[in-house]
Write a structure and sequence with these properties.
This protein is mainly alpha-helical and about 80 residues long. Helix content is about 55%, strand content about 10%. The protein has a two-stranded antiparallel ribbon with strand order 1-2. The longest helix is centred in the middle third of the chain and has 17 residues.
């Protein structure tokens, strides 16, 4: 998929509380999810988010729990 709608009001309502780092993690995960059209393997979260530092890794762990769910294979699938 080369495009997905990002409804700013919905995003602000659902994700407005995120920190700047968490917004970055969420955007990177959404982009990867829609570009690949499949759930994200747990071990791919850090690489997709380019998470290296401790705060980046914390953000990369928080975001999937808030906006994704684990499918029957243990991969992160988006709620929408």
């Amino acid at each position: 998929m080369n495009f997905y709608p990002r409804h700013l009001g919905d995003y602000a309502r659902d994700a407005g509380y995120l920190s700047m780092t968490e917004h970055g993690a969420y955007t990177l995960l959404l982009d990867w999810y829609y570009a690949n059209e499949r759930a994200i393997q747990k071990e791919m979260v850090y690489p997709i988010c380019k998470a290296v530092s401790r705060p980046e890794k914390q953000a990369a762990e928080k975001v999937p729990r808030a906006f994704f769910y684990l499918d029957d294979k243990g991969h992160w699938a988006h709620k929408r």
